[in-house]
Design a protein that fits this description.
The chain has about 425 residues and is mainly alpha-helical. Helix content is about 80%, strand content about 0%.
Length: about 425
């Protein structure tokens, strides 16, 4: 029994670790490349727009496909596509082709693949582990994500970029390729109810599947509420995060090669939060955790916008990441425990449409505001905006409601994969 459970989860863990390492490398290298080409806040934030625009365009179909086809295949194909895209960008850079349009194209293609991979990956743990182990498993996955995506990857990406821009992107492409190969070790993860292949001729259309998933998500008051809280956090996070490289290398006068520290140090907070979540969340409660996830980053933006001290800025970012990682585990566990597996891909997609669909809008708004009022003004506006929008939304997210939603099964609201019942 342990072999049947542990080995598939280890394969998922390895695949996610490698893809997150690639994300971390590129999280530093991509903005550094843009910053060497232009200092225009709008053009710099445009990279974030290109990266997250697919979450507005493709996330709902991606979620429906995650409930229709083998989720293992999605992880393999999506990671290999990202590997190919960044390998081509690295080849162009090695040949002297430096243009912001090439980077926009690469991150857009990678974003399209990411919508597929992430939706599928988030729907896999309930197929590999019992519900009682989900919180611990999510803690390990998110701790690993924080470790390699924002602690190991960015400093390495900045160091590689300092040597040569192409080296950072070649390394990222290789890590995505390894992630795709690791996903091959997973067992077949066909949609629920399909033992030997695709469903019968009575299967619902893709549009019907999308509507079913969206309706299920929208009728779940608690999921909808935490989605809008996370959307507010991500909107203002995108407005500031897209311009962080300009704030750090401008007013804070940090060298390009040290930029990775502003991603790696707060990652220590995310790692600590992920590892301590199993102990802290039951003591603090899921409700207060949601409040902290909004208010701590708001305070951090104020520190960044008003201050000049690099250590103080890093400390503020550390605290925001710590609170955010606790909340991420609370929300993921809620979603995985309260949603039937046959709907999990589509409900996850609906949730992420709200949560990540605002990222390009936030980045665009931050770029426009930064162009007219300066980079510091963006951080101050984000501090006020997040405090005023997220706090009222969090008022009805209580620990009691979270626990009840995780314990009680939630019925599908319509067809799930076919015109008949799947239960």
């Amino acid at each position: 029994m342990p072999v049947a459970v542990v080995r598939p989860f280890t394969a998922l863990w390895a695949s996610q670790a490698s893809s997150n390492l690639a994300d971390g490398l590129l999280q530093a290298a991509a903005p550094l490349l843009v910053a060497t080409l232009t200092r225009d806040p709008l053009v710099v934030s445009g990279m974030t727009v290109a990266q997250f625009l697919p979450w507005l365009l493709a996330t709902l179909p991606a979620g429906a496909l995650a409930d229709r086809i083998d989720r293992r295949r999605i992880l393999v194909a999506g990671n290999l596509l990202r590997a190919a895209g960044f390998a081509l960008l690295a080849l162009a850079l090695a040949g002297g082709g430096r243009h912001v349009g090439l980077l926009y194209a690469a991150v857009f293609i990678a974003g399209c693949a990411e919508t597929m991979v992430d939706n599928a990956a988030l729907a896999i743990p309930p197929r590999l582990l019992p519900r009682a182990k989900l919180e611990r498993a999510n803690g390990r996955l998110f701790a690993t994500q924080a470790l390699v995506n924002t602690f190991v990857g960015p400093p390495a990406g900045a160091a590689l970029f300092a040597l040569t821009a192409s080296a950072a992107f070649f390394t990222g492409a290789a890590a995505f390729a390894v992630a795709g190969l690791a996903a091959l070790l997973l067992p077949a993860l066909r949609p629920a109810g399909e033992e030997d292949g695709p469903g019968d001729s009575g299967r619902a259309t893709l549009a019907q599947d999308i509507r079913t998933g969206w309706s299920h998500f929208w009728r779940h008051d608690l999921l909808r509420r935490v989605a809008f809280i996370s959307a507010a956090i991500n909107f203002f996070g995108a407005a500031t995060g897209a311009l962080l490289v300009l704030l750090v290398t401008g007013p804070y006068a940090v060298a390009l090669s040290h930029y990775g520290l502003f991603i790696a140090v707060p990652a220590a907070g995310a790692i600590a939060g992920s590892l301590l979540a199993e102990r802290l969340v039951p003591r603090v409660g899921g409700g207060p955790t949601t409040w902290l996830a909004a208010l701590v980053p708001a305070a951090g933006y104020a520190v960044l916008g008003l201050g000049h001290s690099t250590p103080l800025a890093l400390a503020a970012m550390f605290g925001a990441a710590f609170a955010g990682s606790l909340n991420q585990i609370v929300v993921s566990t809620l979603r995985q425990a309260a949603v039937p597996d046959a709907l999990l891909g589509r409900v996850t997609a609906a949730y992420r449409l709200i949560v990540l669909g605002v990222v390009p809008l936030g980045a665009l708004g931050g770029g426009l505001l930064g162009r007219h009022l300066g980079v510091r003004a963006v951080f101050l506006a984000a501090a006020a905006g997040l405090a005023l929008t997220a706090a009222p939304l969090a008022s009805r997210v209580t620990t009691r409601r979270l626990r009840e939603a995780e314990r009680l099964p939630v019925r599908p609201v319509g067809p799930v994969g076919s015109t008949g019942s799947d239960e």
